[in-house]
Amino acid sequence: MNDLVALLRTVLGPNAVSVDPGDLQAYGKDWTKAHEPAPLAICFPSSTEEVSRLLALCFRDGIAVVPSGGRTGLAGGAVAAKGEVVLSLERMRKMGPVDPLALTVQVEAGAVTEAVHEHCKPHGLTWPVDFASKGSSTVGGNIATNAGGVRVIRYGLTRNWVLGLTVVLMEGTVLRMNGSLEKNNTGIDLRQVFIGSEGILGVITETTLKLTALPGDRDVFLFGLADLPAVFDLFEAARKSRLLVNAFECFSQDCLEQVLEHRNLSAPFTSPCAQYVLLEVERPTGASGQEAVETWLTGLMESGLVKDAVLAQSEKEASNLWAMREGISESLAHRGLLHKHDISLPIHRLKEFIEIWTRDIDQNYPGLKPYIFGHIGDGNLHVNLMKPESMPVGEFKALCKKADEGMFAWIRRFEGSVSAEHGIGLLKRHLLSYSRSDDEIRLMRQMKQSFDPKGLLNPGKVLPE
Ligand SMILES: Cc1cc2nc3c(=O)[nH]c(=O)nc-3n(C[C@H](O)[C@H](O)[C@H](O)COP(=O)(O)OP(=O)(O)OC[C@H]3O[C@@H](n4cnc5c(N)ncnc54)[C@H](O)[C@@H]3O)c2cc1C
């Protein structure tokens, strides 16, 4: 081991390789803290060329490497628990000038998502990849996970916002793909293969990002609804309106209760509702735009579709309404042991799926409490089961495993996905076949073999054993 560390230091310099126990702990895990970290060393290259030399050395000596961004991943993709070298991109955070004509910016993969937003803001532009972990997640990690978030309904996934990609393969080859071209129909677009590949095919070191105008002022509504069908009727009404929808988020009274208690907030309405929808739209400009919003809202109230509604009158009120949605994960986790999945379904199947799943849990798993919330407009649901206080952990886990089998069978039948946005990583490998056919998995294995013939890059991730 000492020989290897010395060799790594020869390649990267003495200060760019750490075997400090604190670093091994911190860089060997991601947000899931799913496995006990046990990396061999942490490397901090400063350029694409250094990444290439490091990977070539590890390839030659048969050393496994785990690419590591902000380690905010929720699938264990950046976990190093088996003596791997962790390749951290945190010394590669340079951002080039914003091109206001092409609407692009070139950045290194270790750039923090929120730093990219701040960098582009003075130009009235943004990279519209946005979620709660943006202060720590990196552009490389966002691309490697094809990250989603609360604004996917308007902007789509990360994939839509990546033009050029520089990737280093395990044996050291540097691929510079697509530069800053919007149009380039010259054979297979290899760049797309790396987006969402969770670090198993190559290490992303630089990228040219596509930018868009900063959204205008927003209107944020919270609606209270009598039942689940009303949520979907409201979604249809929002889709058919002339409004530009930034977010359409749904959560149940059970979820809201947890947030109100945990964050010590007041209930939004005098009487509770079964379901809530947080709708954010870009405020239309001009008097006629304002009028359109008001007319739409009045029509909704008169139709009886919504039981209650509030429109935020200030940025502070808007943030308070968002807190009720964004605080759900944290509040549930604080409450007790949670079994959770991040799934997606075709939108027309969502209602049926929620009804089937909650009925199954109520009838066959008494004591387990379901909590559902999510990004309805993207077909993305966060489904959670809470352990009753009195139930032993082992019994809870066994029940959840059994309940999952039923749930995944429905996901397969409805042609949904077992992982909507967090990826497969280490934690969901055994579930891949619910969402991908045998032929797809066979082709994925063949691709892995072509890009990484010795299987050294992020081994044990994504593909089933
Ligand atoms: C509070 C919270 C909220 C979140 N909300 C969302 C959300 O709304 N939507 C969403 O999609 N995700 C969400 N996430 C998950 C996570 O933030 C995203 O998956 C994010 O894109 C991961 O970026 P990262 O830099 O932290 O990557 P890491 O966790 O470091 O790595 C993730 C994966 O990418 C690989 N990787 C990292 N960098 C590179 C690179 N340069 N080249 C190749 N492979 C690389 C790693 O090996 C690993 O497999 C959330 C996480 C938290 C903690």
Sum up the structure in keywords:
single chain; 465 residues; alpha+beta; Uridine Diphospho-n-acetylenolpyruvylglucosamine Reductase, domain 2; Uridine Diphospho-n-acetylenolpyruvylglucosamine Reductase, domain 3; Alpha-Beta Plaits; 4 domains; seven-stranded antiparallel sheet; four-stranded mixed sheet; 16 helices; binds flavin-adenine dinucleotide
Summarize the structure.
Helix content is 37%, strand content 20%. It is α+β, with helices and mostly antiparallel strands and 465 residues long. It has a 7-stranded antiparallel beta sheet with strand order 14-11-13-12-16-17-15, sandwiched between helices.
Structural description of this entry:
The protein starts with a helix and ends in a 14-residue tail after the last helix. Helix 1 packs antiparallel against helix 3. It is of the alpha+beta class and 465 residues long. It has 4 domains: 87 residues, 2-Layer Sandwich (Uridine Diphospho-n-acetylenolpyruvylglucosamine Reductase, domain 2); 110 residues, Uridine Diphospho-n-acetylenolpyruvylglucosamine Reductase, domain 3 (2-Layer Sandwich); 111 residues, Alpha-Beta Plaits, CATH 3.30.70; 95 residues, Alpha-Beta Plaits, CATH 3.30.70. The chain has a 7-stranded antiparallel β-sheet with strand order 14-11-13-12-16-17-15, sandwiched between helices. Strands 1-2-4-3 form a 4-stranded mixed β-sheet, with helices on both faces. It is 37% helix and 20% strand. The chain contains 16 helices and 17 strands. Flavin-adenine dinucleotide binds next to strand 3, helix 5 and strand 9.
